[in-house]
Amino acid sequence: MNAIRHQLKNKFLTLQKIIAQHRRFFLVIHPSPDADALGASYSLQEYIHRQNPNNQTTIYSIDLPSENLKPLFDFKKITTKLQLNNTDVLIFLDRGDVYYKLSFEKKLKKISAPPQIIVNIDHHTNTVIPEAVNIRNTTASSTSEIMYYFFQEVNFPIDLTIAQYLLNGIWFDTGGFRHNNTTPEVLEISGELMRKGASISKINRYLTANKPVEVLKLWGLALERVRVNTKTGMAVSYITKKDLEKSGVTIKQLDPSKLSELLNTIADTKFSLMLTEREENKVKASLRSDEYKKVDVRKIAQLFKGGGHKLASGFEVPGKIKPTKDGLMVE
């Protein structure tokens, strides 16, 4: 038996019982949901419904995913309206820290009949929710991988629909099988999902290719602005709100995480930092590195109260980007 599945066996059986004993479920995913958060939540929703057609599930995020994910996930399944009343089980998927960042602990106290049970399913570090049933493993490549092991443990047959959801998530969080979290087990799982009918070419087509000309022009602008700090090995660039408004491109279409990955391929660099201005006077930072470069970008993100993975992290700070003669400032 796989080590992750073995470690989480009892937690998986607990989750199976929770779903069997309740009818109303509210699934929470993090802001700007990625393919892993969606893959894990959509596959769990399918499982819940197939256990009992009368079960009610809602998938919630404060905002919708990037448009390029639309061909892979039906956005009609997501709501941006928080409705915690009449919920039996509250489930957080892929970022347990959302529980505190979005003040759920305070919101639940204001409800006359709060959810009876909280569940947290995640593969990130520092995301334990004390009040919850925590189903976590930080060695897993993705939350979608954890969901695969759950389905195995409870003998739930994975069909084409669920296989595609899970492969979407695993592919995304392994960087298309390029990151060091691409273990032999991940490749075996992916092969099994493909045998179920899931398509890697479909994922690649929508997550890597098919970029509009306007988006590629902005990527070109970001590449023109790249600066490399020879002392730290950091490659940094930025896109402002004015750039986005002028081009008519949304931040989700821009996909800063992919830009950060592109900057990380520059020769003789150790990590990349992509800065983008957001609404409400905020700047979002996306950090990327590679195992052989031996830089833990999560530690950098944590300095600014952010987080993520060793090789892929991010943070957010208030202010605006101001280019200077010597570099960039956020003020």
Set down the secondary structure blueprint.
Layout: H1 3-21, E1 24-28, H2 35-51, E2 56-60, E3 78-79, E4 89-93, H3 98-101, H4 104-109, E5 117-122, E6 133-136, H5 143-153, H6 160-173, H7 184-195, H8 200-207, H9 213-224, E7 227-229, E8 234-239, H10 241-247, H11 251-254, H12 256-263, E9 271-278, E10 282-289, H13 297-303, E11 307-308, E12 312-318, E13 321-323, E14 328-330
Parallel strand pairs: 1-2, 1-4, 2-3, 4-5, 5-6, 8-9
Antiparallel strand pairs: 7-8, 9-10, 10-12, 11-12, 13-14
Features:
331 residues, alpha/beta, inorganic pyrophosphatase (n-terminal core), Diaminopimelate Epimerase, Chain A, domain 1, 2 domains, 6-stranded parallel beta sheet, 13 helices, globular
What does this 3D model show about the protein?
By secondary structure, the protein is of the alpha/beta class. It folds into 2 domains: 3-206, inorganic pyrophosphatase (n-terminal core) (Alpha-Beta Complex), CATH 3.90.1640; 213-330, Diaminopimelate Epimerase, Chain A, domain 1 (Roll), CATH 3.10.310. Helix content is 39%, strand content 20%. The protein contains 13 helices and 14 strands. It has helices spanning 3-21, 35-51, 98-101, 104-109, 143-153, 160-173, 184-195, 200-207, 213-224, 241-247, 251-254, 256-263, 297-303; strands at 24-28, 56-60, 78-79, 89-93, 117-122, 133-136, 227-229, 234-239, 271-278, 282-289, 307-308, 312-318, 321-323, 328-330. The strands form 3 sheets. The protein has a 6-stranded parallel sheet, with helices on one face. The chain has a 6-stranded mixed sheet with strand order 7-8-9-10-12-11, with helices on both faces. β7 and β8 form a beta hairpin. α2 (35-51) packs antiparallel against α6 (160-173). The N and C termini lie far apart (52 Å).
